[in-house]
Write a structure and sequence with these properties.
- The complex is a heterodimer.
- Chain A is 73% helix and 3% strand.
- The two termini of chain A are 53 Å apart.
- The longest helix of chain A has 36 residues, at 496-531.
- Chain A is globular.
- Chain A is mainly alpha-helical.
- In chain A, helix 3 (66-85) runs antiparallel to helix 16, helix 12 (286-317) runs antiparallel to helix 14 and helix 12 (286-317) packs antiparallel against helix 16 (411-429).
- Chain A has 22 helices and 2 strands.
- By secondary structure, chain B is an all-alpha fold.
- Chain B is 76% helix and 2% strand.
- Chain B has 20 helices and 2 strands.
- In chain B, helix 3 (89-116) runs antiparallel to helix 18 and helix 5 (145-164) packs antiparallel against helix 6.
- The longest helix of chain B has 32 residues, at 342-373.
- Chain B is globular.
- Chain B starts with 16 loop residues before the first helix and ends with a helix.
- The chains are: A mainly alpha, B mainly alpha.
- Chains A and B meet through helix 21 and helix 22 of A and helix 6, helix 8, helix 9 and helix 11 of B.
Chain lengths: 564, 519
C-alpha cells in the first residue's frame, strides 16, 4: 500500500536529478526539494502510511506522528537553509551528498521498524562522509575514514541489536523499549555513538571542523539530532540518560574554553547542547520530551547560524583559529550581527530561541526534583554562554585587531544567515507556533519574572567572569592558543593512568597485530604458491589427470552407494 | 491441459508450444547454412529464432508457475513408448533463463563476433550457436532420459566447435576445445551408461515411467550404479570441483559472446539435469542418494566455494578470474541441492537464475573491454572503467551481485541458502557461505581497482562500447537489481519448482495416470 511518496524519496529523486542536470539549474533543485518535502511533511496525515514488504519483512517507511513530524520539519528546514548557504558550491559531490544525507535523515525519522531505520541510519553515515572528503585533502580523507568507521560501526551495532531484538520479541517495530537485555543495550549504544555520548563523542569534534565550509553547516544539523530523535522514541524515561546527559553538558565546556579552532569550539558546544536534550529524554515526562523536541528544533537553527557565520569568516579569511582572527566587525558587520544573534540564542537570552526551549528542560528537571541535575544544567548554561556566547563573537569579530580586512560574506550566505537569525528571534519572541508542533500538548509559559531574572543574572555573572579573566589575562586561548591540538588537549585532560594503560595496551596490540600480520602474510603467501596463477591448484592439468579424477570420483560414489 | 493432450484431437498452435520451443531454433540453424546467409542476415535469423523461443518460454512459464505441468507427446506417440516433452515449474524456469539469456546475448554478440571472428565463419558460427541453444533447451524440456543424452550431445558438440572459433584470437582455444571434447565425451558416456543401467533394470526410458518402476527398487545394485554414473557424468558437465578442469580454459579462450552465453546457461542446464534425476527419477528418500549428496557433493561444494575463490583472487586475467568464480558459485548451487530441504533447493534454483544473469553482465562487460582493449588481462584493461564509464558501472553492479550485496539478485539467493543451512541446523555451513562471500569481495574489488584506480592503459581504444553492447549489458545489470527487489517471479517459481521436485515421484506418477486417462 503506497498512498504517499516517502519523503526521503523526494530528496533521493532530487539527488538523481542533480547528477544529470546542467550546472546552472542544480542549485534551485537543491532548494526546491526541501521545500517540497516540508510541504509534504506539513500536510501529511498521521498514521502508518507506507508499508513495503521485502522478503517477508514488513518495512514501515512512513510512520507519521507528532514526534516524527517535528523532526522531519526541522530537518527539511535545515536542508533548505544549508543548501541556500551553499548556493555558491559547484561541486556535484557535495550537492548530491547533502541531498542524500538530508533524505536519509528524514527517512530514518519516519522509519517505523528497525530494519528501515538501520538502512537510513547507514545512509546518513555514507552520504555525510562525502561532505568531509569533499575538502579533498589528505587530512580530510583520514578524518573522513575515521568518521565513517565510527558511523558504520554504530549502524552495525544497531543491526545486531535489531536482530537480537527480533529473536527476543518477534517484532521489529521501532517503539519504546526498556533497557536491560543485550538487544536493547546494543540499540542503545548504537544510538549513543551517534548522539556523541561521553567517551563515544570524539568523532564529532574530529570530523565536523574538518568538513568543507558548507559541509559543516549541513553536518551539524542531522546526525546527532537523528540520534536524539531515536533515543526519544526508543528510550524515553530511561534514567541513566539523565546522568549521561548531565556529563555531556559539563565536560565539553572545559575543552571548548581552551580550544582555539572556532569550528571545533562549536563542535564541543554542540555536544554540550545535546546533553540538555539527552537529559530531557532521560526525565521522560511529557514536559521534558517536549523540551527535548523544542530544544532540538531551536538548536538546529542557532547552531547552524553559528556554524554559518564562522564558516563565512573561514570562507573569506581562510582560517577559523581564534588566535588569528579579530577585528572583523569592521568589514563584516552583518555576519557579526548574525553571529551575535546565534550566540544570544545558544546562551538562552530571553527573546531568543534557546531561552524558550531550554527552559522547558530545566523546568522539567526541577519539577521532577532532580535538584543536582538542575544545578548542573544551570552551570552548563553559564558555560555555554562563556564559550559560545562570548568567545565565538569576541575572538572572531572583536578582540585584538588581526589586521584582516575581508569582504562581507556573499549575498546568499547573508540571506541564509538572515533567515536563520530571523527564525531564532521569531521563535524566541513568539514561541506559540513551535509549542503547537510539540509531541504533547503543553501549557507552559517561558516568560515568567523569576525565569527571566534568573537567566539574566546567570548570563551577566558569566559575562563578568569572562571579562575578569580577560582583564587579568588568564583566559587560556590568549596564552597558548596556537599550540593547541586536539590530541594534546585530549591527553592532558585524561588521567595519566588511562594514558599509561592505553600505551601498554597499544604496545601489546602492536605486538599481537604484527605477530598475526606475519602469520597472515605467511598464509597468503602459501595460498599464492598453491592457488596463484603458477600454483598447483590453478594449473590446468593434462587431460589424463582429469580422467583420473573422474574415475576416482566415480569409484568413491559407487562405494558410498553400495555400502549405504 | 495434460488430460486434453491427445493426438486424436485437432491441436492448436498453442498446444504445440513445447515442441516449438525446441523446433524453432533447431530449424533455423540449418536454414542459416542452406540460405548461405552472410554476416548480418545469419545474425538476424539467429536472433529472431531466439526471440521467438523466448516468447514461447514466457507463455509456458506463465502456464505452469502455479504448479501443474504440460505433457506433450512427440508425433502423437503416447508416452512411455513415445518421446514425451514435459514442462513444469522447474524446467519452464530454466527455459525462460536459457532463451532469455540467449536473446539478450545475441545483440551483444553482433559487434563482438565481428571483432573476434573473421567474416567467412559467421554463417557457421551462428548456425552452431543455434544448435547449441537447441541442445540446451532440449536437455531441459524433454521428459525422456535417452533424449536428454541426445540433446546433451547436440549442445556439447556445437559447444566444442564454438569454443574452437576462439582460435583466431588465441590458438590455445583449440587445445581448450579439444580437452573439453575429451572430457565432455567421457562425461556423456558415463551418463549414457547410467541410463543403460536404468533401462536394464526397468525396461523403460520415459522419466515418469522410470520413476514409478524404480520407486521400490532401492536396494537394486544396478539402480545404485546407474545413479553413480549419472551423477558423476553430469557432474563433469556441471564442473563439480575436481571435475572442473575443462572449464577455465574453455571460458577463457572462447569468443566473448560464447563465454557469456555458456557461463549463464550451459552449466545451469546440467545442474537442472542433476536436479531432475536426483529428485524426480530417483527418490530423494533413497538412502544411497542421501549419502551420495551429503558425503560427496556437499564437501566438494564447500571445497569449490573456497579453492576456486582463492584461485580467482590471484588471477591476472579477468575472464579467467570470472571462470574460476563460476566454479565457486556452482559450489553454492550444489550446496543447496545437498541440503535436501525445500529452502535449500529453492536457493539453488534461484541462485542458478541469479548467477546466470550476474555472469551474463560480467562476461558481456569483459567482451566490451576486449573489443576496446584487445585483451582481458588486468594489465591491458587497466583504467578502462574511466574511459568506458557505462560498461564499467554495469560491471560494478554485476560484481556487487556476485558478492551478494543486499539490493542485488545475488543477495536473495545467498540469503535463501544461508536460511536453508540454518534450517538444517548446520551453523558452520552458514559461516562458510559468508566467509567465501568475503573472498568474492576480494576478487571483485581487484577488478574494480584495476578498472578505476589506474590511468587508462596505453594503446587501448579509448571509446565507450557500442550501443548494441551497452543495451544488453545494462538490461542484465538492471535485471540484477530488479530481481534483488522483486522476488515474486524468481522466488515464486523456484519455490514451486523445489516443492514439486521434493515431492519425488508423485508429480511424475500423476502424469502417467492422467495420460492414460486421456486415451
Amino acid at each position: 500500500m503506497v498512498d504517499v511518496l516517502p519523503t526521503a524519496l523526494i530528496f533521493f529523486a532530487a539527488a538523481a536529478l542533480v547528477l544529470v542536470l546542467p550546472r546552472s539549474v542544480r542549485a534551485p533543485v537543491l532548494l526546491i526539494a526541501p521545500v517540497l518535502a516540508a510541504w509534504q511533511v506539513w500536510t501529511i496525515p498521521e498514521g502508518q502510511l507506507v508499508i513495503w514488504s521485502l522478503m517477508g519483512l514488513e518495512l514501515e517507511l512512513m510512520r507519521v506522528d507528532k514526534l516524527s513530524r517535528i523532526f522531519a520539519l526541522i530537518f527539511s528546514l535545515a536542508a533548505f537553509l544549508g543548501n541556500l548557504y551553499a548556493w555558491h558550491v559547484r561541486d556535484p559531490v557535495q550537492q548530491v551528498a547533502a541531498l542524500l544525507y538530508a533524505g536519509s535523515a528524514i527517512g530514518a525519522v519516519f522509519a517505523g521498524d528497525l530494519i528501515s531505520l538501520f538502512l537510513y541510519w547507514e545512509g546518513t553515515a555514507i552520504a555525510s562522509v562525502f561532505l568531509i572528503w569533499a575538502r579533498r585533502t589528505e587530512g580530510a580523507y583520514h578524518t573522513g575514514m575515521r568518521y565513517l568507521i565510527v558511523q558504520i560501526a554504530s549502524g552495525v551495532i544497531l543491526l545486531a541489536g535489531a536482530a537480537l531484538y527480533w529473536r527476543e520479541t518477534g517484532s521489529l517495530t521501532f517503539e519504546a523499549m526498556t533497557l536491560g537485555s543485550p538487544a536493547t543495550w546494543c540499540i542503545f549504544i548504537a544510538f549513543g555513538i551517534k548522539a556523541a555520548f561521553p567517551l563515544l563523542h570524539n568523532w564529532l569534534q574530529d570530523a565536523y571542523p574538518a568538513a568543507t565550509v558548507t559541509g559543516t553547516v549541513i553536518l551539524s544539523a542531522f546526525t546527532t539530532k537523528l540520534a536524539i530523535y531515536a533515543l526519544a522514541r526508543g528510550f524515553a524515561g530511561t534514567e541513566i540518560l539523565i546522568y549521561i546527559g548531565a556529563i555531556m553538558t559539563l565536560f565539553p565546556i572545559f575543552y571548548a574554553v581552551i580550544e582555539n579552532d572556532l569550528r571545533r569550539v562549536l563542535a564541543y558546544s554542540l555536544n554540550n547542547q545535546l546533553g540538555f536534550m539527552v537529559v530531557g529524554i532521560g526525565i521522560g515526562t511529557e514536559l521534558a520530551l517536549n523540551g527535548t523536541a523544542a530544544h532540538a528544533f531551536s538548536h538546529i537553527l542557532y547552531k547552524a547560524l553559528l556554524f554559518m557565520s564562522v564558516g563565512a569568516v573561514l570562507f573569506r579569511t581562510g582560517t577559523a583559529k581564534g588566535s588569528e582572527l579579530g577585528g572583523l566587525y569592521k568589514t563584516m558587520p552583518l555576519t557579526m550581527i548574525f553571529c551575535v544573534v546565534g550566540a544570544a540564542s545558544i546562551s538562552a537570552f530571553p527573546l531568543f530561541s534557546g531561552f524558550i526551549s531550554k527552559s522547558l528542560i530545566l523546568s522539567a528537571s526541577a519539577k521532577e526534583h532532580y535538584d543536582y541535575i538542575w544545578a548542573i544544567l544551570l552551570f552548563a548554561s553559564a558555560g555555554v554562554f562563556h564559550h559560545s556566547g562570548i568567545k565565538i563573537p569576541y575572538f572572531a569579530f572583536f578582540a585584538h585587531d588581526s589586521g584582516l580586512r575581508p569582504k562581507e560574506a556573499p549575498t546568499h550566505m547573508l540571506l541564509a544567515m538572515g533567515l536563520t537569525a530571523f527564525l531564532c528571534i521569531f521563535i524566541g519572541a513568539y514561541p506559540a507556533p513551535l509549542y503547537a508542533l510539540l509531541p504533547y500538548d503543553v501549557v507552559y509559559v517561558p516568560y515568567t519574572t523569576t525565569h527571566v531574572i534568573t537567566q539574566l543574572q546567570l548570563l551577566l555573572f558569566s559575562a563578568l567572569a569572562f571579562t575578569v579573566l580577560m582583564r587579568t589575562q588568564i583566559y587560556p586561548p590568549e596564552l597558548r592558543s596556537i599550540n593547541l591540538d586536539t590530541d594534546v588537549t585530549y591527553r592532558k585532560f585524561m588521567p595519566g593512568v588511562i594514558t599509561l594503560v592505553a600505551l601498554g595496551l597499544s604496545r601489546i596490540w602492536q605486538q599481537q597485530t604484527s605477530f598475526w600480520m606475519r602469520k597472515l602474510n605467511l598464509i597468503v603467501g602459501g595460498l599464492y604458491r598453491t592457488h596463484g596463477p603458477e600454483g598447483r591448484m590453478a594449473r590446468v592439468w593434462p587431460t589424463g589427470s582429469m580422467v583420473l579424477w573422474i574415475a576416482i570420483l566415480l569409484g568413491v560414489t559407487l562405494l558410498v552407494n553400495f555400502f549405504s | 491441459m495434460a488430460t486434453e493432450t491427445s493426438h486424436h484431437v485437432a491441436m492448436t498452435l498453442h498446444d504445440h508450444l513445447p515442441m516449438l520451443q525446441v523446433l524453432i531454433p533447431f530449424i533455423a540453424s540449418p536454414l542459416i547454412v542452406l540460405m548461405g546467409a552472410r554476416g548480418g542476415l545469419s545474425w538476424l535469423i539467429a536472433f529472431v529464432a531466439s526471440l521467438a523461443s523466448f516468447i514461447v518460454s514466457i507463455v509456458l512459464l506463465m502456464e505452469v508457475i502455479d504448479g501443474g505441468f504440460i505433457s506433450y507427446a512427440i508425433g502423437g506417440w503416447a508416452p512411455p513408448l513415445g518421446i514425451e516433452y514435459r514442462v513444469d515449474a522447474a524446467n519452464a524456469f530454466m527455459l525462460f533463463l536459457i532463451s532469455g539469456i540467449s536473446t539478450i546475448v545475441l545483440p551483444f554478440a553482433y559487434e563482438s563476433v565481428k571483432a573476434e571472428i573473421s567474416a567467412k565463419h559467421h554463417t557457421l558460427f551462428y548456425s552452431c550457436y543455434l544448435l547449441c541453444f537447441t541442445g540446451l533447451l532440449g536437455v531441459v524440456i524433454t521428459g525422456d532420459a535417452f533424449n536428454v543424452f541426445v540433446f546433451l550431445e547436440i549442445s556439447s558438440l556445437s559447444t566444442y566447435a564454438l569454443i574452437a572459433t576462439g582460435a583466431e584470437r588465441d590458438k590455445r582455444a583449440l587445445t581448450a576445445a579439444y580437452d573439453y571434447l575429451v572430457m565432455g565425451t567421457i562425461g556423456a558416456t558415463f551418463f549414457v551408461i547410467g541410463i543403460g543401467f536404468l533401462y536394464m533394470a526397468t525396461g523403460t526410458l520415459n522419466m515418469a515411467d522410470l520413476a514409478e518402476r524404480i520407486a521400490d527398487q532401492e536396494n537394486n545394485r544396478t539402480i545404485k550404479a546407474a545413479f553413480a554414473f549419472i551423477l558423476v557424468g553430469m557432474g563433469l558437465k556441471v564442473a563439480i570441483y575436481p571435475l572442473h578442469l575443462w572449464l577455465p580454459n574453455s571460458y577463457t579462450y572462447a569468443p566473448s559472446a560464447i563465454t557469456a552465453f555458456l557461463a549463464a546457461t550451459a552449466t545451469k542446464a546440467a545442474i537442472y539435469v542433476i536436479l531432475r534425476f536426483t529428485f524426480s527419477v530417483f527418490q530423494p528418500s533413497f538412502q544411497f542418494e542421501v549419502y551420495a549428496l551429503e558425503f560427496i557433493i556437499l564437501p566438494l561444494a564447500v571445497l569449490a566455494m573456497f579453492a576456486a575463490s582463492f584461485i580467482a583472487v590471484f588471477q591476472s586475467d579477468l575472464k579467467r578470474m570470472l571462470a574460476y568464480s563460476s566454479i565457486a558459485q556452482i559450489g553454492y548451487m550444489l550446496l543447496g541441492i545437498a541440503l535436501l530441504n525445500s529452502t535449500g533447493l529453492t536457493g539453488s534454483i534461484v541462485h542458478l537464475f541469479n548467477h546466470g544473469i550476474t555472469k551474463a553482465v560480467l562476461f558481456m562487460g569483459v567482451g566490451a573491454l576486449v573489443l576496446r582493449s584487445g585483451s582481458s588481462f588486468y594489465s591491458r584493461i587497466r583504467g578502462m572503467g574511466r574511459v568506458m564509464p557505462i560498461t564499467g558501472a554495469a560491471m560494478v553492479v554485476g560484481g556487487l551481485s556476485l558478492i551478494g550485496v543486499p539490493g542485488t539478485a545475488g543477495f536473495i539467493s545467498k540469503w535463501e541458502l544461508v536460511q536453508a543451512t540454518l534450517e538444517r541446523g548446520w551453523w558452520p555451513l552458514a559461516f562458510l557461505i559468508a566467509a567465501s562471500s568475503l573472498l568474492a569481495v576480494i576478487y571483485v574489488w581487484r577488478f574494480v581497482e584495476v578498472l578505476y584506480l589506474h590511468e587508462p592503459a596505453y594503446g587501448a581504444d579509448h571509446r565507450e562500447a557500442p550501443l548494441t553492447m551497452l543495451v544488453p549489458i545494462w538490461i542484465m545489470a538492471l535485471a540484477c537489481i530488479y530481481f534483488g527487489f522483486a522476488t515474486e517471479i524468481t522466488l515464486g517459481a523456484a519455490r514451486t519448482a523445489a516443492d514439486g521436485l521434493l515431492a519425488g515421484t508423485t508429480g511424475m506418477l500423476e502424469s502417467v495416470t492422467s495420460t492414460e486417462a486421456g486415451h
